[in-house]
Amino acid sequence: MDFLLKAFSLLTFIFFGVNSFAQTSTDKNTLKFNNGNIDEFVEWLDTRGEIINAHDGGIIFVSGKYYWYGLALRALGQDKGEKNGAATETGINLYSSNNLLEWNYEGVVLSTSNDVQSPLRSPMRLERPKIIYNKKTKKFVMWFHYVGYPGNHGQEIGFADAGVAVSDKITGPFKYIGHHRPINDSGAVKDCTLFMENDSTAYFIFDRKMPDGSRCLHITKLSDDFLHTTDTWAKIDVANRREAPTVIKQNGTYFLVTSDVSGWKANAAKTYKSSDIFGPWAEAGNPCVGEQKESTYNTQCTYAFKVSVTENSYIIMLERHNTSNFLKCSYVWLPIEIDKNQQLYFSYKKEWYLDSMFSSKE
Ligand code: GAL
After folding, report:
1. By the 8 A CB rule, do 53 and 322 touch?
2. Whose CA is nearest to atom 12 of ligand 1?
3. Which pairing describes strands 188-196 and 253-259: parallel, antiparallel, or unpaired?
4. In this structure, which residue's CA is closest to atom 11 in ligand 1?
5. Distance CA 157, CA 134 (A)
6. Which atom in ligand 1 lies closest to the alpha carbon of residue 191?
7. Tell me: the pLDDT tens digits for 6-45?
8. Residue 130 and residue 123: Cα distance in Å, rounded?
């Protein structure tokens, strides 16, 4: 009953948010997610009219609002070296919204530094940041793929590690805690994500690259305060040479969506499934269907989040990389479907309305 009430109030909130925007907006087109054509870079604007600059991040729902955070990229393109273009001179940006469509800029929540001694010396990378809330410590904890100044990937410690920052408020400022290599202090940390259970147990999932060049996704349980990795870990053997991990759980099944390894060039996504987060995981195919499924619709996955407490209401956040100007990378958000056979998929939609997620399930 409690669950139903929660589901109802959240749905009411979502519809109210979207509908109230509809009533005041003169342009109904602003109410939909606009992913554009598969070869198009659509500019998603914030309420100031500026391009949303929050890359490879995620969404967290706090006190009735959605917060979208991500890496603030620079406008450099291939002419200046794509490695540098992917670095940040700013840090992590935050936006807030009541309806997932209108985004207010909240500012920089974790800043890089001009101090040459600082571990956050600019430019650097804070790639694929993810934030979860720790109920016990009442703190927001952010994990990311840490790459120190000048932001070029490397094998040495300080150029491919797990970084952690913490804040009392989602709006920051986040305090940088440090960076390290989970699991015996060995293996470079590349793409990563966080997953939190309903019981507040949390995990750091990452691409671990060993000195011999082998790489595979690994999972480690976080400490109770979420600030450290622990000795409880597993290698996700089947996810060999996979990147851009994101995890959701539905009816007791964990789904791990990943990309292949090809730098910024788009490739085919692959899903893995398990009933235990520590495995064994089984391959569950390409989650994309139809045209351009082998390129994940010319995108790479970033994160997936639950829109409401009802079943199957997840959105996957994907990113269409633009190496000629990283500020013009575009966002592609799609509703996730999980069918009766527990197969997860998402099909391309040039544009779609949030409320279609709910009406299709009635
Ligand atoms: C991608 C990875 C990105 C970024 C990029 C750099 O494969 O998913 O997060 O690191 O490589 O080339």
Report:
1. no
2. 263
3. unpaired
4. 263
5. 28
6. 9
7. 343 344 344 333 333 332 333 444 569 999 999 999 999 9
8. 20
Domains of the chain plus CATH, in order, are 2-361 (2.115.10.20)
Distance 244 CA to ligand 1 centre (A): 8
Q: How far apart are CA 340 and CA 268, in angstroms?
A: 24
Question: What's the 322 CA to ligand 1 centre distance in angstroms?
Answer: 12
User: Ligand 1 centroid to 263 CA: how many Å?
Assistant: 5
The pLDDT tens digits for 193-220 are 999 999 999 999 999 999 999 999 999 9
* Pocket lining for ligand 1, CB < 6 angstroms: 56, 86, 127-128, 191, 243-244, 263-264, 300
Query: What distance in angstroms lies between residue 236's CA and the mean position of ligand 1's atoms?
Result: 20
In angstroms, what is the span from residue 317 Cα to ligand 1's centroid? 16
Average pLDDT over residues 300-328: 88
Q: Which atom of ligand 1 is nearest to the CA of 86?
A: 6
Q: What is the largest CA-CA distance in the chain?
A: 59
So what's the pLDDT on residue 51?
Answer: 96
Give the separation between CA 77 and CA 79, rounded to whole angstroms: 5
pLDDT in tens, 316-355: 999 999 988 888 999 999 999 999 999 999 999 999 998 7
C-alpha 294 to ligand 1 mean position (Å): 18
**C-alpha–C-alpha distance, residues 161 and 119, integer Å:** 12
Residue with the two structure tokens 């410690």: 157
Q: Is the pLDDT of residue 147 over 50?
A: yes
> Mean of the pLDDT values across residues 267-288?
98
Mean pLDDT of 277-298: 98
Q: What angle do CA 60, 248, 314 make, to 5 degrees?
A: 65
Supply the residue whose CA is at minimum distance from atom 4 of ligand 1.
263
Shortest-distance Cα residue to atom 2 of ligand 1: 263
Judge whether 222 and 203 are in contact, CB under 8 Å.
yes
